[in-house]
Amino acid sequence: MAFLSISLAFAQRNRGKAEVFIQIAERGNFKVYLDDELIGSATGRFRFYEVYNTRPVLTILAGSEKVFSREITSVPNRRLVFNFSRRSGLSLLKELDIYRNNAYALDDFDDYAEAYNTGIVPPDRPTSPQNRNDFDALVARVKQEAFDDQKLKVISAYSNYTALSTKQLGQLLPLFFKDESKLLLVKQEFQYVVDPHQFYLLKDSFTFMGSKDEFMKFLEGQKTEQVRNRPMSANDFTAFYKRFKSEAFDDNKTELAKVALINIKLTSEQVKELVACYSFEDKGLDFAKWAFRITFDKENYYTLADKFKFQSNKQALLDFISKQK
């Protein structure tokens, strides 16, 4: 079984798919087609994760106007990152290996997720000093405002031109006096934030349990097209795993997962680690059934049966998998 699992995983990683990412710096209502697949984005970043056609047609719409359309060349097992503007046209920014050491190697846009044991350590992607200075200036300006509504207006004016990260929002939320204002801010910024899969981390920024619950209900109802068919990176999973494991009750673990994982995929190995955190096997089984639909490598899902001690639960999971399409 172990040998079969490894063989299937290796085959999955070497079946020749490519990834094509497009960055559009201009503000506007853009939509991007790659052949027949359509992606919209509020942040100007468009991600196509499963590209098998080596000569797909890339089409870019600004509103209803077609501003670009031509064939491009995709490269199996490589991510191509393009920049587009109406003035300069399409240009290739980066070409990255999708897999290293038989593992998915990339972050959510244009760099490697972490160092690998290859003898070559990819450098960290530095934050632009200008961007850091701009954000520091924003924080200082927000602190000067005496009322929450004015703080919101300042942040809104800034984020109209620069997308914030979850970490940056986490620095801004403590500057507000009321939970109601914090909720307004996160609801306003979610559609523009650069890393929506990290948004669940803001739960602890609220003072009252009612506000935390409202935040989680809001997040559970959101769906973006920014993350499609990409396994959670090792760094992101480590952060999520710590938070997931810290939940005292099994039901709370599942509730957190249903909110935090709404815009991202897991691997079967990641699901295994989460299932092991459950105190009661029946709760872990329920989670495993739920997580099937957001798992990247479904052909390996049968290996989760090994995480259950009771034969009835092993069989229930295998029966469930056999009925899925």
What does this structure look like?
This protein has 325 residues and is an alpha+beta fold. It has 3 domains: 14-104, Carboxypeptidase-like, regulatory domain (Immunoglobulin-like); 129-220, no CATH class; 234-322, no CATH class. It is 38% helix and 18% strand. It has 11 helices and 10 strands. It has helices spanning 2-13, 129-144, 148-159, 166-172, 179-189, 209-220, 234-246, 250-260, 268-275, 281-291, 311-322; strands at 18-24, 30-34, 37-40, 45-51, 57-62, 65-71, 78-85, 89-97, 99-100, 103-104. The chain has a 4-stranded mixed beta sheet, with no helix packed on it. Strands 3-2-5-6 form a 4-stranded antiparallel beta sheet, with no helix packed on it. Helix 6 (209-220) crosses helix 8 (250-260). The longest helix has 16 residues, at 129-144. The radius of gyration is 21 Å and the shape is flat. The model is unreliable at 1-15, 116-130 and 224-229 (pLDDT under 50).
